[in-house]
Amino acid sequence: MPVKIKIDKFVIAIIVSIAIAYFFPQLGASDSPVPMDTISSIGITLIFFFYGLSLSTQAIKNGLKNWRLHVVVQGSTFLLFPLVILIFYPFVKGSEHELTWLSFLFLAALPSTVSSSVVMVSMAKGNLPAAIFNASISGILGILFTPLWMMPFIQQTDIVFDFSSIYLQLITEIVVPLILGLLLRRFWSAWAQRQKRYLDIFDKFVILLIIYKSFVQSFEDKIFSNLSLWDMGIMVVLTLLLFYVIYNLTGWLGRILKFNRADQITNQFCGTKKSLVHGTVFSEALFGQTSIVGILILPLMFYHAFQILIVSVIATKKSEQSSKGNITC
Fold this sequence. Notes:
By secondary structure, the protein is mainly alpha-helical. The protein has 16 helices and no strands. The radius of gyration is 20 Å and the shape is globular.
């Protein structure tokens, strides 16, 4: 039976947003009367407030029991991924490729995505409670680990960063709303669950808005003028290669630790995912005052498309295997 490949509508929306940024930059331009920075800032705050409301404390409590799986998944997300990229730093340091390398480190340092990880694990008949736990906790850990990975390297660039304002922005736009959402779960969590579909649409709208604004700024400062189609093609190939390297490494770790089939699926699906939501939000906080944001989130957007496409195909195959009683990993 042939596998049906669906084109993700959000990937199409991202491409459309970039095209609009190129042909219609007026709303996001530096002299625009529309306060895009304020709008995106409010949007980011609400995303993490709703994220706090939606977190399942029961899933987190249940998930704590399978600690070996969680250590491997979070270790893959925040340690294995960045270390694979870090190996190549001596080869690009001080060269024209250092910014591209930084964009891959940014991708590697991000937390796992929530919704698609859970959906794909469920489709493939993996360990769903563990997937919910890891996807949820990853977003919280990312607030700490992503900036820690990035700070030593952005300090070495020629771009001037005000680190006090960056940390203040991270705290006010991400940490405080998240904590507030967690505190108000007992009152509004049921409402958040009922409105999940609309909250997901809101999240995606804010992400598209940030992508539009970032690319307008990059186009305005001609940051892509030195990036040829050849360079873009190489970036696509490297992004695809990175996915398969991490997917196979997480699979190897799972076999070493003798994970059962369900845990191995969760291990590989959650350990290889990266969150476009967190990526665009963190890029705004870390690099929003510069014109390099467009290039920095480019590998992330390629990766987002690949992870949905490839993992959906793998999940479909594993689901068919499970239905036939084939339990091989």
